[in-house]
Amino acid sequence: MKRVLQTTALLASLAWVMPAQAEATPEAKAKGREIAEEAERRDRGWGDSSADLEMVLTNKRGKESVRKLTIKSLEVESDGDKSLTVFQEPRDVNGTAFLSFSHSLEPDQQWLYLPALKRVKRIASANKSGPFLGSEFAFEDLSSFEVDKYEYEFLRDDNIDGEDVYVVKYIPQYKHSGYKYQEAWIDKAHYRVQKVDFYDRKGSHLKTLRVTNYQQYLDKYWRADQFMVSNHLTGKKTALKWHNYQFGTGLSEKEFNKNSLKRAR
Length: 265
Known about the structure:
mainly beta, 13-stranded antiparallel β-sheet
């Protein structure tokens, strides 16, 4: 009992001498949200798109494995976007398909089709913080960005790779997120995400996303050629290399439903 009392006293004294983390000011919250809203506003109106991807998985010893896939996306007015991702190579993942309906305030809806099991599996909300098919991306990372999913705090101005940027804290407001918060570097010229640091529920720096080689399409929409996630706890990395972006391909709602997952190729 004496040791417990001594420990309690020590913790109390540390709490007294260590300053509490300052609450974000209303101005910092408002500016953070304004930056997020402007980034979202600049990317409206593309309708539908498709792209080919290579997913490169690198383990902590530097050994790589490569997967090839395609992704189709549909912009949804007044709600989150819909996307359909289909794996093509290697053979053991051929036909695996992932369908995601993003939402602003309601939980995202996600389904995974595994050809070996010949069935569609619903991804439960509590499991969205788990890894996506062995990669360093979580299921929740694959939903579209929706402003109302987060609260915001403007942290500071900064510079990254010669780009003047805003650094903004994103605090998830949806239940079961695997992150306590994220810090995003957003360039001032075009409001494109350049880098994101992810902090787990304990507040530890879990991983970093770098977004590079942006190209502009339709004289308006910016898309990056590479996403690279580095996991600081496991030493693993996952790169997404994007090719053959196309817009206005005529995709419709009927191509984004769970009944079509088995037919997706």
